[in-house]
Amino acid sequence: MKKLMAVILLGLTLSFSNAVLADELSTLRVVVVHTDDAAAYIAHLNKGSMLIKAITPKLTIRAWQATFAGDSTGAMIVGLEYPGSLADFATAWEKVQADKSVTQWFAGLDRLRKIVSDSLYNEIAI
Fold first, then answer.
1. In sequence order, what DSSP letters do the residues of 20-87 get, joined into one string?
2. What are the two backbone dihedrals, phi and then psi, of residue 39, each rounded to the nearest 5 degrees?
3. Domain-by-domain residue ranges, the chain?
C-alpha cells in the first residue's frame, strides 16, 4: 500500500511539474508588413524559419494575411513567439541576429516587404 501511495504521489508531482512548464508565459513579436508579392514573401519566410529554428528551436514563426480588413486587406502579419520573458526572447534574438546566414536572409526579406509596424508583447496570465 505504501508503494502504491508513493507511486501515485510521484505521478501527481510529475504531472504538476509538467503543467507548470506547459503554462510558461511567452513573448510575442508582431511585425505588420506590406508586400507586393505575398507568395515570394511566404517562400522567403519559410527559408528563414528553417535557419532560425536551427539556431533557437523554441522560436515559432507564423504568418497571417488580412482578407477582410478594409484598406489593410492583403497586409501580412508575422508573429515570432518565444516561450519565456522578454529577456529570454532578447537573448535568443541576439543569437539569431549574430548568424551571418540570417543576416543575408534578412537582406533578401527586406527587398520583399515594407514594415508597417513592429511590436513586442508579453503574455498575461488569465
1. HHHT--EEEEEEEEE-S-HHHHHHHHHHHHHHHHHH-TT-EEEEEE-SS-GGGTT-EEEEEEEES-HH
2. -65, -45
3. 25-122
Asked if pLDDT for residue 9 goes beyond 70, the answer is no
Architecture of the structural domain at 25-122? 2-Layer Sandwich (3.30)
Q: Summarize pLDDT for 93-115 with one digit per residue, the tens.
A: 999 999 999 999 999 999 999 99
What does the buried/exposed string (b/e) look like for 77-92 if buried means 16 or more CB atoms within 10 Å of the residue's CB? bbebbbbeeeeebeeb
